[in-house]
Design a protein that fits this description.
Elements: E1 4-6, E2 12-14, H1 17-35, H2 39-64, E3 71-79, E4 84-90, E5 100-104, E6 113-119, E7 126-130, E8 137-147, E9 152-156, E10 162-165, E11 167-172, E12 177-181, E13 189-193, H3 202-205, H4 211-237, H5 246-277, H6 286-300, H7 306-309, E14 312-313, E15 316-317, H8 319-332, H9 337-362, H10 368-379, H11 385-389, H12 394-412, H13 418-430, H14 440-454, H15 459-479, H16 495-506, H17 517-520, H18 522-534, H19 540-563, H20 575-596, H21 600-652, H22 655-659, H23 672-680, H24 682-685, E16 700-703, E17 709-710, E18 725-727, E19 738-742, E20 753-760, E21 767-773, E22 779-781, E23 789-798, E24 804-810, E25 817-820, E26 823-825, H25 829-837, H26 839-856
Antiparallel strand pairs: 1-2, 3-6, 3-8, 4-5, 4-7, 7-13, 8-9, 8-12, 10-13, 11-12, 14-15, 16-19, 17-18, 18-25, 19-24, 20-23, 20-25, 20-26, 21-22, 21-24
Helix pairs in contact: 2-15, 4-8, 5-9, 5-10, 5-26, 6-8, 9-10, 9-12, 9-19, 10-20, 12-13, 12-14, 12-19, 14-15, 14-19, 16-19, 18-20, 19-20, 20-21
Length: 857
Amino acid sequence: MEDRLAIGEGIRAPLSHASRISYSDAVHEKLRRATGMSSRTRLAWAGLAAVSLVVLGVSVGQRSRSSHPSRTLEIEMRATAGTSAQLFWAADLRFVEERSVRIPLQPGSDGFQRLRFPLPPSGIGWLRFDPTDAPAEIVIGRVRLLDSNQHLLATFDPQTFKPANQIASMTRQEAGTKVTTTPGATDPFLFLSFGTLDRPSRWDTLWLVTPTALLVVSLLAVTLIATSVVIIGVAAFRTERSAIPPGIAGASRRLSALWMAVLFLLVFSAKLLLMRENPVTVPFWDQWDGEAAILFAPYERESLDWGRMFDFHNEHRILFTRLLALDLLAVNGEWDPRLEQVVNAGIHACTAVLVAVIFWVSGARRQLDLLVFVCALTFALPFSWDSTLIGFQSAFYFLLLFSVLALWLTTRHRVGTGPWYVGWVYALCGLFTAAGGLLIPLAIAGVISLKVLDDRQELRDAFINVGACACISALGVWLAAPPLADHAFLKVRTVGDFVTSFGRDLAWPWIDFPPAAFVVWLPLAVLLAAAALRRARTTEFERLVVGLSIWVTLQSAALAYGRGVGGAMPATRYFDILSLGFVANTMALLAVLDRARASRAATRGAAAVLVGWLVVGAVGVDRLTSQSLTNLAVYRQYFAAHAANVRRYVITDDVAEFKAKQPLVDLPYPSPEHLATLLQDPDIRRILPASVRQPIHVQPQTVTNGAFVQEALDVAIPHDPLARGWLSLSDEGRRAQGRFESAPTGPCRAGGHLTFQVSGYLGWKGQYLAVKDLLTGVERAVRPSRVPEESWVEATIPCPAGPFDIVAIDATSESWFGFREPVERGRASPLVETFIGASRGLLIAALALAVLAARWS
């Protein structure tokens, strides 16, 4: 049937395909003229409006959560001395005066004083009760939780309070629980786990971080990253068939892919090698609060809400760092800093490839080998070792990744297209990585300005992009942290200090010589001057250079202001950000030399300048790396002491010895008291890393012929007083033969593997060690990677799903073996250790591939 179009009244005429297209275009053109906007423009503004509505909804939802009725904790108590009692509340064992109530005491020996402490409506994980501020005997009677109408919500047995500081004893009496402080006590207090009783309302459950909600949000994040990978892949490997023969195009794609793989492997394996040579197996410093107290413990108690995921950590809203930490905990079943380090290394290696690819694509797909060298120089070397070895530093890696993606996608692609939207989503996500995420819209605005100067037809799209920049910037300012009193001493106080610190940041890698900034940033200055003098249009490559330079400059200025007291040098954790200044100026030098090449002599001169620049840069990076590794050598001793001391405390519970340790030198946290409190939390103990976890208790049930005896000091193998082990070395020496079988134990709670330490000649004929699944009867043999002889070697096997026992058999008089109580290990942790152990081989393979790619080039 013919398509027809009504023209006037009662008249119909045939409509051809070409006519339909023309008519459709005419309608869109009329709408565009009537509204003053194209469909792409309207779609872009609609997207911005949708983002604004989402932000507004989240804001309103968070405010509405505070409308719950208040509660009161009523404690009946008498004390023989003291002037006041105080109650603190917190979600994460971080108690501060602002979240506490103090009530005057009436000391006496008869009757109870009724103490009424008002509490917030929700969000309480722990209570800290200071019953007095002097040495005293205290009797705690009835403890009740009341609502705003004085109706009973819950009652507490005083015995559920756990002694924490300056408490000598707690005993149950007829009148209540008697608490005696230590002599000379000035700050005795007790803890009460409140999270399991602080059940959220139906509305609050919508805001809880449940496993399902975490999975959905994580899948959305993975989808966003996968989308950007597809966009970049299409841009990198798309070829013009008319210009490049198919065979040559295919070879070029394969060579390009090889160079990208080389860069990823170089960066990734170099970081793995750093982890191998400097093992950090215990969470360090901010991780104990930022992960254990704020995230993991509330998540295990089902009281973690999404509002806390967006909360500040110092000046930063580290949503994506928290998401990654929770995802790795959920996948692994154990809090493993090494797993975090390896994943972070993968993120940074991908960012290196991204930086090389976008400059390669923007520069007409030329000199990929040179780009790989520059990015390997600034991403692989361990000058920023703390970002690699401290798993909590992923916020800076996310900041780099999201900023580069946002800069490229928003400025390369037309307004209203899919990649353009993805770019602005990354700009929005950058606000929730580190405080520097606020600055990416300004860099984008700089690139947009250059595009408008080159082509006035870009003006309409520029208005939309600038509007998006303004929206993201306004949101970033609204979300920014207020000045922190604890960090006020780090801010610059004079203009001279700011200039010096700013110069150090810009002079990277020559940070100890601020005037070097003029040399490091000379290529960009020459590029901008040349473009201005010639009034030449800038290329996409040059605009990308300018955008990245603006971003690094703004980051440097922010660091100089916030951390530049006394003209201080930047901390090593910021080097990954500052190193992009060297990358940007190297790209600027390439652009300048490309414009200057007019003859063979000019080309040779440009090559000489470029080689000289790279040599000077490599010397500076090597010098900076040597300085950083000298500092790391000191910390390496600290890291080993941290693991030893935390493990000793977890196994022995010797609080006095632990609190006598020195922060940083002996302990991975600035407050021994607070760290001891965190390690007493059963939810945190359950997920501790294998290096400091309490071993599974093994109780011998059957031992034949006395073959297996408990490990002792007089055996000529290394002895660990904190580890219980058994050796098939009885009075008969290695001639002893017999069977050992433990009492049933398990199931595993934290992870999917068991790690044994074994010694002797396990693996030889007649030596057998296995874990027997009591539900299925299946035995899994423990096989070390090598025969340990007179040392101890780790061997890991999957853990049975249910209860199990341990079977050991020595059936030969020619040899012996021993084993220690196993430790649970996460599901992914053995794979991580395999990667780290293979780091040297991976690095050699990456270098071999680089030689091969260079030969093919």
